[in-house]
């Protein structure tokens, strides 16, 4: 080899491990994960503007339309733990690509939905698999991003994903409405997600495996090599070293006890080492989303019952305050910490809902202000549902742990959405709000008991302390 050729190779290697290269990689990783969450919101939001067209074209009854809308929710419930188990077993890298491939295939399939009796079945199946892919984003992308993020920025980066979801949902409404008004067929409207899915699939090609996952499989040299190439933060480098040390201690202890370190499973989430992380993340997430999904879904009806008509207040006000709450939490999370943004807000929201429920003669304008305050503070601590599950579980259970918590939260979302109309009719609006307050109160008690402070700490430190 010539001297000039050797010099060129050395220069290429240096560029591949430079600070600029590492920063570009981190920006790319954050972008593709945030893009995935944007796509999640977009897919769930794009149905709304064309629901009328679909109902007319396919002659849908209320049950059929409900099944189509519920398909993704069922898919999320199934996909979250399934993808979590798969990503802990087979790796973050392959599953991150497979998940977006499922997004792409399901999105493209929407273009070919036929008319007639089979259309509803086709839509339900396609939307179900899209939900599976959405659930996979929680279980795969969250752990992958947390395992590459510097401790001092990890909370902010994970919190950004929820903002992306809100933005995706709102963009879908805008795009869907514009295309609907332009006379675009509904199949083309709901199929617009294919373009974004294709871009994200290509962008995910070539991403490296997570060093944390490699460590759980005993592939320490590969983990160190990837860290050297892609990780710029000294704190993150130290975190990976700590994970290696912790894993070696666990393996030594297992050898001493003549046992083996088992792979990821649902049962392991409830072992004496991991039950705290499982109970906290699942219960907290459940209690955070149950009241919000119920109130936000039926905002107009709820506010009308209290003497304040819907329209702007219901359709825009609650959503705008929720988005503001998420943005506020993202800006403050790595400064103030997780716990202070989690616990007080839950107590406050429980109190707000209780006041709404028991003060039957409260002025309508006060009720509106209380609902807007609830939306803001609830969204603020709901941001932590994207952060805590990606931090508190040990590396070998991080995917399935986040997947289980996400699936459990969907039970709450479904209960809140489907139970509120029944509750309003049978026990009244005031009593329904008291029940919602009880759910928020349960979340506050649980977080007061178990919520840790993880600000600025490495994943090895967090999982080690939280499992004792």
From TrEMBL:
Domain of life: Bacteria
Gene3D superfamilies: MFS general substrate transporter like domains (1.20.1250.20)
Pfam family, one: Sugar_tr
GO molecular function: carbohydrate:proton symporter activity
Domain Major facilitator superfamily (MFS) profile stretches: 29-455
Alphabetized UniProt keyword annotations: Membrane, Transmembrane, Transmembrane helix
Membrane topology, as annotated: Multi-pass membrane protein
Keyword field contains Cell wall biogenesis/degradation: no
GO CC terms in record: plasma membrane
Coiled coil: none
Family that this chain belongs to: Belongs to the major facilitator superfamily. Sugar transporter (TC 2.A.1.1) family.
Protein name, per record: General substrate transporter
């Amino acid at each position: 080899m010539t001297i000039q050729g050797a010099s060129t190779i050395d220069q290429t290697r240096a560029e591949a491990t430079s600070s600029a290269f590492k920063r570009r990689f981190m920006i790319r990783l954050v972008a593709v994960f945030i893009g995935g969450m944007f796509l999640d919101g977009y897919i769930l939001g794009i149905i709304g503007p064309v629901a009328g067209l679909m109902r007319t074209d396919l002659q849908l009854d209320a049950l059929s339309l409900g099944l189509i809308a519920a398909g993704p929710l069922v898919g999320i419930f199934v996909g979250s733990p399934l993808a979590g188990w798969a990503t802990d077993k087979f790796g973050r890298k392959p599953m991150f690509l497979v998940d977006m491939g499922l997004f792409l295939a399901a999105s493209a399939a929407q273009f070919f939905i036929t008319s007639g009796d089979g259309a509803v079945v086709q839509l339900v199946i396609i939307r179900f698999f899209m939900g599976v892919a959405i659930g996979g984003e929680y279980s795969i992308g969250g752990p992958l991003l947390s395992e590459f993020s510097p401790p001092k920025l990890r909370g902010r980066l994970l919190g950004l994903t929820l903002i992306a979801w809100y933005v995706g949902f709102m963009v879908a409404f805008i795009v869907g409405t514009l295309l609907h008004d332009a006379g675009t067929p509904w199949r083309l409207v709901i199929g617009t997600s294919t373009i974004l899915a294709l871009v994200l699939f290509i962008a995910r090609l070539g991403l490296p495996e997570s060093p944390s996952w490699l460590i759980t499989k005993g592939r320490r040299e590969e983990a160190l090599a990837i860290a050297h190439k892609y990780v710029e933060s000294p704190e993150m480098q130290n975190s990976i070293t700590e994970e290696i040390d912790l894993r070696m201690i666990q393996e030594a202890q297992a050898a001493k006890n003549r046992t083996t370190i088992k792979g990821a499973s649902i049962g392991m989430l409830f072992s004496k080492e991991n039950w705290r992380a499982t109970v906290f993340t699942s219960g907290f997430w459940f209690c955070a989303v149950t009241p919000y999904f119920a109130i936000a879904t039926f905002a107009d009806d709820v506010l009308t019952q209290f003497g304040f008509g819907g329209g702007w207040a219901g359709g825009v006000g609650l959503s705008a305050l929720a988005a503001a709450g998420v943005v506020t939490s993202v800006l403050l999370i790595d400064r103030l910490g997780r716990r202070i943004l989690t616990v007080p807000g839950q107590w406050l929201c429980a109190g707000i809902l209780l006041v709404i429920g028991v003060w039957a003669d409260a002025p309508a304008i006060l009720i509106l202000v209380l609902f807007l305050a609830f939306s803001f503070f609830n969204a603020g601590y709901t941001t932590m549902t994207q952060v805590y599950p990606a931090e508190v579980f040990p590396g070998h259970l991080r995917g399935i742990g986040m997947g289980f918590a996400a699936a459990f939260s969907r039970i709450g979302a479904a209960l809140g959405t489907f139970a509120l109309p029944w509750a309003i009719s049978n026990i009244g609006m005031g009593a329904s709000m008291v029940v919602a307050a009880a759910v928020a109160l349960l979340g506050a008690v649980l977080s007061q008991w178990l919520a840790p402070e993880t600000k600025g700490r490495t994943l090895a430190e967090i999982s080690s302390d939280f499992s004792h």
